[in-house]
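FYI - complex with iron/sulfur cluster, inputs then prediction.
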Amino acid sequence: MAEDKNSLMESYPCQLKDLKLSCYGCCGDDWTSKADVENDIWLNSKDFKEIYSDNEKSVLDLEFFRDRFAKDEVSKSGVCMNLVDFGSRCLACPLHPKVNKIVSCKKTVAPISDLRVGHCDVNYECETVKFWNLMNSVQRSEFIEFLILKDLDNYEYSMKNVSGELIKEFFESKKLKLD
Ligand code: SF4
Ligand code: SF4
């Protein structure tokens, strides 16, 4: 258990691999519904397979996948057209240079340069991330326990992160003040 907790402490709210939680709250806007979002992520993943996975997995393929739509275009459900389902509840952006920290290089090979630049706000931090960065290891551990009890799916986790609701609930549960 100690080892599990240590590995969780090395995690980050955007991707909590050990909890099988992927957040995509800031990978979109004007969300319609969970069903629509999941369907659009399925379509993205289908495109990714056809354009990238079934081919040479080159940077050119990755850029071709990214550029199949305009920079500011999002799907009808609101989700970014670059978000891919890599299986086992892991959703991630193949344009991210650190994607291989959470997805095997057999599935996607991280680009050397950040291919997201110009396509989204790569420096965005939601309230969860801002507070995570201020938390000590005990508070982070408590937050992880809080998440385990909540048993959210990726959609719920994403929406609650980007709205700021989740971290607020956590602090309220600990009876701590946000400011
Ligand atoms: S909404 Fe927050 S936790 Fe989710 S991906 Fe964006 S920065 Fe990470
Ligand atoms: S380009 Fe990648 S990180 Fe940026 S919004 Fe789209 S899926 Fe998210």
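The chain has seven helices and four strands. Residues 27-120 form one domain.
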